[in-house]
Amino acid sequence: MTRSTRRSRTVALTASAVVIALGATACGGSSSNSGSGAPGKGGTLTVLNKADFDHLDPQRVYTTEGSSMDQEIVRDLTGWDETGSKPKLVGDLATDTGTPSKGATVWTFHLRHGVKYQDGTEVTAPDVKYGVERFFSSDINGGPPYAAQWLVGGADYKGPYQGKELDSIQTPDKYTIVFHLNQPVADFNETTTMTGWAAVPKAHDTGSTYDTHVWSDGPYMIKSYTKNKELVLTRNKNWSQATDPIRQQNVDEMDVRFGQDESAIDQQIKADAGTAQTSIQQWPIAGSDLSQLANDPSLKSRYYKIPAPGINYLAINTTRVKDLKVRQAIEYAVDKTTVRGAFGGSAYGDYATTMLSPGIGGYQKFNQYSANPAGNLAKAKALMKQAGNPKPSMSIAVENTPTQEHFADAVKTALERIGIHVNISPIDASNYFSTVNNTKNQYDLTWGDWIADWPNASTVLPTLFDGRLIKKNPQANQDLSYLNDPKVNALIDKAATMTDVEQRNATYGRMDQQVLKDAAVVPLMYMNFSDMSGSKVGGVIPDTILAEPSLVHVYVKH
């Protein structure tokens, strides 16, 4: 998953003692200036974001900020209870985490009775079926690929808008839904924690404009939404705590404001005056502010440092930069020390040498290129010489934020040293991923970050490097390096059918090594994400799956 400057993320820190009172344990800096022990009710939480969400339509969301916000509005079949020391898979709309049969090729879920939409009608299995079927419509693009990859008949199905249903999703009664898969998927019930497995009532589906009209079955519903300006959520009066094991409904409203500069948001929340006291940010602290804020003891109680199961990387377009020697030269030339400086230095994360990050099943420690994070200029120049000393010009795509533009400058400086001229292409942050994921817009070099959709290599390498998906998802292509290596594809197919976890993980480790041998990407950093809230915000849970500050228990202190 992607995070606009964080792509699917994982987390591990908490900040107010109230969270501890709710049963969470902090792996980092828990604080003792707790305020009261019980969540307050009422008030407005303000969320300050640099840009609007790519999407809130549950079938189109594929950024961590959008997914985190959607948790307030829609419910999925399963979800993560993150109040304990590590995330626990639980039923959300479903009564439990589902039942596999026929070698994990059939999965059955039973829905809770009495889950209500904002108009008081009950959520039913046909609504979930219809929601999942929306994934397949060309009007509803941008979301994750799993439904299309795994549901029988998914390759040819074109969505529900011509009145056709997908037969591999069955609803034998109002509260039962059964999925028939084309291969065993042992962790399918972790896929169903993603927002796309949410119910959409057909009568309220507005197609490609559903982003601003999402029909709520969660604790909050859309009161108003002006794109790129403001989203206001208010209580869904028909939501019931008795049917929801994950969320609470503590604040009256959530006011999400878009369009301020990252540093301006940081300084406002740091100053902690007026509405900033009841504010939180979803995008990480700007690189230029990070080391200062990370080391400020006065902010400790409201600073969340969230290690992500993810990677910040530079993709090299293998169909445009065709010479392997040139790509290898780029691997050696990039100076990760200046790159990391742009993102905020060591507080941002450790230097990366692999695409799988530590903590993800399948991670193996290896380093294909320079042992020194500053690179190896002599080696890079020698490779360019072997390539015939070309003097190419290359485009690099980045978000139009100061952090990213500093990053692009660092790459440009490094590559100019080996005779590669770099043209920087800044793209509006709110449209960044929908732009670079569209195959019509190809760049030589593209910044990306990726967080596992759940903590398993199956949600990293196949999504980012299965070259066969490029044609299938021309508007939602995650393979930013356009790698289509038969060796990688064969390993993807092999791993997909393996039920032995250790064997499967070993196969993913080999896949990671092959991607680096192909010099398709430069892994930069294993990421941490750091966010702050005002002093009157309580109940924030570090979401170790999305690496976002989770708002599911948030409250405002009075």
UniProtKB/TrEMBL annotation:
Q: PROSITE patterns given for it?
A: PROKAR_LIPOPROTEIN
| Range of residues in the leader sequence | 1-26
Q: Which CDD domains match?
A: PBP2_clavulanate_OppA2 (cd08506)
Positions in coiled-coil regions: none
Q: Which domain of life is it from?
A: Bacteria
Keywords on record: Signal
Matching entries from InterPro entries are given as: Peptide/Ni-bd, SBP_5, SBP_5_dom
Instruction: List residues of the Solute-binding protein family domain.
Output: 88-467
Protein name, UniProt field: ABC transporter substrate-binding protein
